[in-house]
Amino acid sequence: MNQPLRIALTGNPNSGKTTLFNKLTGSNEQVGNWAGVTVEPIFARMRKRYTAKDVDVFDLPGTYSISPYSPEEALARQAILGQSYDVIINIADGANLSRSLFFATQLLEIGRPIVIALNKADILKQRGDEVDLAFLSRELGVPIVPIQASKAIGLDDLIRSAKAQAGTSRAITEPLHDEERRRMIDELIDRSMIRSHDPLKQTLSDRLDRFFIHPIIGLISFFLIMWAVYAFAIEGLGGRLSDWINERLFGEMAPLFVEILMNRYGLSPVLGSFLNQAVIGGVGAVLGFIPIIMLLFFLLSLLEDSGYMSRVAVLMDKYFKRIGLSGKSIIPMIVGSGCAVPGVMATRTIENVDQRRITAMLTPFVPCSAKLPVIALISVAFFPRSSWVGPSTYVLAIVIIVLGGLLLKKIFRNTDESHFIVELPEYRLPSFSQALGRMWDQAKAFVYKASTIIFVMSVLIWILQAFDFSGLTDDPSTSFLAMLSGRLSFLLIPLGLAGWQLVTALLTGFIAKENVVGTLAVLLAAGSSEALGTGILADYFNPVTAYAYLLLNLFTPPCVAAIAALKKELREPRWVWRTLIFQLSVGYLMAMIVSQLGSLIVYRQLLASWWIALIILIVYVVIIVYMINRRPTHAD
Amino acid sequence: MLLSTCHSGTTGVIKKIHGDDKIKRFLFSLGCAEGDQLALISVLGGNYIVGIKDSRYALDKSLAGKIELIAPQRHGRLG
Predict the structure, then answer these.
(1) Model confidence over A161-191: pLDDT tens digits?
(2) Which among A524, A533, A535, A393 is positioned nearest to A462, based on CA atoms?
(3) Which residue, of A137, A165, A194, is where some domain finishes?
(4) How many contiguous H segments (helices) and E segments (strands) does chain B have?
């Protein structure tokens, strides 16, 4: 049997491994101009234009050294020392050759076949520096191929060279001592490189940094940039396109089409209502958000590629430290505003274990793109003339992150001292084609999700609400679903909410947040999310309880995919439990407080369940005070 | 002189790195160890932007306080 050749890509963070990977395999993996974009080994088959035979390419997380500093570096080390690759391509960053060679020379000693790709050869040229690659290659005893991964230059040579190395064997050599290695590299660089630029001289990036990392100007520009991204994607162009799809396509055209099918072609009414409720109502209500999601990911991708993210980390470090986090915690949160799964995974670049855990616990509070349909549903139905609902969820997310951080810091004390250091890559013009590729991938993934998970859930919900023990029923309140969800509806009493439908929607939301909209659409028998607002929802909510229900959906634990990501990052089961309990408590308490206080303030009326809410609140306060004051245990 | 007490525009050679082994090893892999050249590009809101080899890094004040320079020279703004 012919096994495919396996090539592993290694190198320093931000040296361009994933860019090379995407070019070689035609993938659209997330690249970004900051250290630590790839936190997990990924692999894909190489494109046929580079090879006639089957070749698998593995993209490993970046590392500065074979002895790891952060967990994602440890992963790279494990992968490299494992025997599962036929040849290693080590990407040396032309923008910092000496640092790259530190890691490269460590790799040479482990005795695996290897080729060095000198990436960003253009930056060297731009700076006016020259490297004698033939000399370097001879001295190190390894082929060196100059490439420019972003423009796919030099890749044929690289692959040819890698294939030639694959069969060969290298001797394992005694590892050099760190100091000796450094001396050897300094000498090599001296002899092989002609520098005409002074690396310590001011650059354009340095001047931009004075602006973007400035404690006041930098902060203002950060808020303006983020506001512009979300405003354009969610309210601006993205919002308008999405409105059009929701109102015209799924609100008018699709139901009309079903009506025609029923009237002209004799489609059975049961099937008609199935199409209207489960397919158009459930899936359609969610699909309308595709323009927003595409634009959001497009803009975030541009931002990530520009080099700006590490600056934000520096800017935020001061503030995040006070709540027990690191400046690097901001990156998972921004990424998490697209999707919590990569957001949670991005926490791996944080070295300090306490900061990493707490960041992972807090990241899912940032409203992700899947929560947008839920926000839109409530805001259109109950607050049609006000624009504060969407932004308020982001503000509340920030408040919860600050308070949650403070609380978690108090409960799970920070043990070891932490330092903050982050590389500031040169700013660059973000690649449009890369952002388009990512946007396209997200769109495909979203349509896939809508046509699988959300479709199946909507159908399942429709069936469960249409049948009871005696068969098809006209009264959903006697259905299987009402029976199942009804058992849990007592949980909503302290929130001033009633109705098994709301429980069902909440529960399906844990599978995927978009399901909340789909489920409500199916259960409350409306054509689309827009039609939902016109009266049916008002039977279940007033504006105050609707907002409370929204918060309940947003701030309780995220979807199962994000919980799985949390489980992977937190590793220990007890941390997963702590996270879930913490998130459940936050979402529930917020909804409860908003509902109770809101009713009192807005309607000057106490809810009937006020005393239950008060008891719950007191119990929580007692537990929290106890946890803050208990003696720290060694296990934590 | 500790890096945390230097002004922007200072260059110097590293005399000693204080602190635990882990952070020393990490800084070493970046090319930041005894005898290496370092430039303090700017100090912005308590963050120290430094040039080490061909790259830029931002350090917080506590880390900057662990890097000791020999005879730092101040050039005003570099370049």
Answers:
(1) 999 998 787 888 877 888 888 889 999 999 9
(2) A524
(3) A194
(4) 2, 5
Task: Write out the H or E segment, with its range, that includes residue A378.
Answer: helix A372-382
pLDDT at residue A104 in the model: 93
* Cβ of residue A177 closer than 8 Å to a chain B Cβ: no
Cα gap A371→A618, rounded to integer Å: 30
Q: Say yes or no to pLDDT of A148 above 80.
A: yes
ipTM above 0.85, yes or no: yes
Residue-range domain boundaries for chain B? 3-74
Q: Which of A573, A612, A332, A406 is nearest to A492 (CA)?
A: A612
- As a whole number, mean pLDDT of residues A383-411 equals 90
Q: Write the CATH number for A24.
A: 3.40.50.300
Domain enclosing residue A182, as ranges: 5-194
Per-residue pLDDT of B30-77, as tens digits, reads: 889 888 889 999 999 899 999 998 899 999 999 999 999 987 777 655
Report the DSSP beta bridge partners of residue B57: A423, B50
CA distance A318 to chain B (A): 8
Residue A526: which pLDDT band, with cuts at 50, 70 and 90? very low
Residue A83 banded pLDDT, cuts 50, 70, 90: low
How confident is residue A527, by pLDDT bands cut at 50, 70 and 90? very low
Tell me what the pLDDT averaged over chain A comes to: 87
In the beta sheet, which residues pair with residue B58?
Answer: A422, B49
Whether A322 contacts chain B with CB within 8 A: no
Interface residues of B toward A, Cβ cutoff 8 Å, are: 11, 19, 22-23, 25-31, 33, 37, 39, 41-42, 44-47, 49, 51, 53-60, 62-63, 66, 77-79
Residues A76/A60, Cβ–Cβ less than 8 Å? yes
In whole angstroms, give the CA distance from residue A318 to residue A148.
Answer: 37
Query: By the 8 A CB rule, do A330 and A320 touch?
Result: yes
Q: Which of A269, A248, A397 is nearest to A334 (CA)?
A: A397
How far is Cα A623 from Cα A617, in angstroms, rounded to an integer?
10
The span from the CA of B15 to the CA of B18, in Å, is 10
Annotate A300-350 with DSSP letters as a single string: HHHHHHHTHHHHHHHHHHHHHHHTT--GGGHHHHHHHTT-HHHHHHGGGG-
pLDDT at A68: 66
pLDDT digits (tens, 9 = 90+) for A207-221: 999 999 999 999 999
Last residue of a domain, one of A194, A229, A244: A194
Structure pTM?
0.86
Residue with token string 């855990």: A357
Per the document, the length of chain B is 79
Q: Do A565 and A489 reside in the same domain of the chain?
A: yes
Domain formed by B3-74, architecture: Roll (2.30)
CB contact under 8 A, B53 and A210: no
Beta strands A114-119 and A55-59: pairing type? unpaired
Q: What average pLDDT does the segment A623-628 reach? A: 90
Q: Residue A168's beta-bridge partner residues?
A: none
Residue A581 has a pLDDT of 95
| Contact check, Cβ <8 Å, A200/B39 | yes
Q: Give, in order, the Cα–Cα distances in Å from A48 to each of A23, A25, A473, B3, B69.
A: 12, 9, 56, 52, 53
Query: Which residue among B31, B46, B51 places its CB closest to the CB of A98?
Result: B31
